[in-house]
Amino acid sequence: MITKVYEDIYMIEVVLPNNPLKALNSYVVKGNDKSLIIDTGFNREECIDALFNGLEELNIDIKDTELFITHLHADHSGMASIFKEAGVKIYAGEIDGRLINEMTGIDYWERFEEFKILFDLERDGVTFSEHPGYKYCLKEPVEFTYMKEGKGIQVGTYFFEIIDIPGHTPGHIGLYERNHKLFFCGDHILDKITPNIGFWGFEENILATYFNSLAKVYSYDIDYLFSAHRNIIRDHTRRINELMFHHKERLGEIVHILKDGELSVRDVAAQMHWSIRARGWEDFPIPQKWFAAGEAMSHLEHLYCTGKLNKELREGKLFFKLE
């Protein structure tokens, strides 16, 4: 389905089969000599058909496009190899662009075996082979044109500034059109659903990073916030306030769960509230166990970094308890 969302800007709904996100909003900015495509969908047949049928309906040839990838997740970057083969310029942030290419190798995914032990997910028999990022990511590296804040992209009458908005991923970037008050934010801010804030390593308190990025965008003058899933947002400050409240509740929930004693990441995640059609943790699909444990871990680590929790590593597993 194609929707005109602004002058010379269109949204192509790219179906994401068997995925709770349901669809990706891929945006197309039409210009005179070139058009800019923002995010792609998974590297799988249904997504490819949806995106390229939309481009055909808009009378856009892939050779007359450039691709902008907001962040590393496979539902945003999965088709980059198709654009590479067509000789298209592909923009990405340096951090996430590097990680996208690392995801093409088995070493990246074998790190998930370490996380499986760290999170105590061995008990659930999870495997990275069932992770959608592994199944639908690029299979070979691509050459990116790296972008960072301070740079920009001209498309027709629009000039898009690159904005760094890390948190959902370590190197998430967005596009801001100051004159028209437009912001393409990828998964940084979503309506109706909340962006997953996973764990990316001990080098950074990623939840605090996300909070800082939300505060940054809060101050921007925006009329249309073009999110990558669900709704276009017309009041970004309202939604940011809601997201901040959501995470405050999440942190409080975890403190309450730990009131009776020490728990592993997996056991905290199993007791948290999740918007999923499952009778309990045992019924969670394997991909959702990965995402839930990762989000639990980012919140546990934030509570540890802010002095609310203690943690201990035993036999490769992390355990948390109240300070």
Automatic annotation (TrEMBL):
Signal peptide: none annotated. Residues 23-229 form the Metallo-beta-lactamase domain. SMART domains: Lactamase_B. InterPro entries: Metallo-B-lactamas, RibonucZ/Hydroxyglut_hydro, Sec-metab_biosynth-thioest, WH-like_DNA-bd_sf. Transmembrane segments: none annotated. Gene3D superfamilies: Ribonuclease Z/Hydroxyacylglutathione hydrolase-like, Winged helix-like DNA-binding domain superfamily/Winged helix DNA-binding domain. SUPFAM superfamilies: Metallo-hydrolase/oxidoreductase. This is MBL fold metallo-hydrolase. It comes from Tissierella carlieri.
